[in-house]
Amino acid sequence: MRTDGRKLNELREVIITPNYTDYPEGSVLISFGKTKILCNATILEEVPHWIITQGKDHGWITAEYAMLPRSTQQRSPRETLKPRGRTMEISRLIGRSLRAAVNLKKLGRRTCILDCDVIQADGGTRTAAITGGYIALALALNKLVANEQIPDDTLHTEIAAVSTGVYNGSVMLDLCYEEDSQADVDANIVMDGEGNFIEVQCTSEGKPFSRNTLDDLLNLARGGISELISTQRTFIHNFHQTDP
Hints:
The chain is α+β, with helices and mostly antiparallel strands. The protein is built from 6 helices and 9 strands; from the N terminus they run E-E-E-H-E-H-H-E-H-E-E-H-E-E-H. It has a single domain, classed as GHMP Kinase, N-terminal domain (Ribosomal Protein S5, domain 2), CATH 3.30.230.70.
């Protein structure tokens, strides 16, 4: 049994609350157990200057990730002047991951900004931000589809992510902070709705690990992400049934 009683291949409870804030084009609060992240999607009718100067004709998806000062057990300083390296790295990861879901040409000269703010952290914040960020993105783009501003196949696949790791000699899925902070191997995996890998981040915290262990981590992630994508599909379908 794990620190929170789950099976080795069991996700934490996932709760998605839509329209958590009123103003963004897409907004959800997503919880992976005790980890809670507010994901807001904003649509701008403009693109970064570099797209114009390079003569490109497509849209852009980008993300900003932040942890609120008291999202952890001890308060951390607010990142007001310059984001820390970890923050910038996760922001880029979220943006890269979500761009894989969108035909940027069909998006047109628009930018979608995903703001992923960690309200409470208990491990897996980057993977929860990607999973929730996709839902906020889908809600925002579906409004453009409903208004006939973009084709309905602009968003062409789901994106979800999950952590896996080796803790106390066991390969396990969706690590909470206590497990993640003491893991011998830590991995974050991002996949699309067709089962393709978008990003694999895997690190040994001590002695090297075998190819068999890597395969076990990836296979475990594939099963967990399949569950998350099913949850995303069901949520978005039900949302449009109740809030067309």
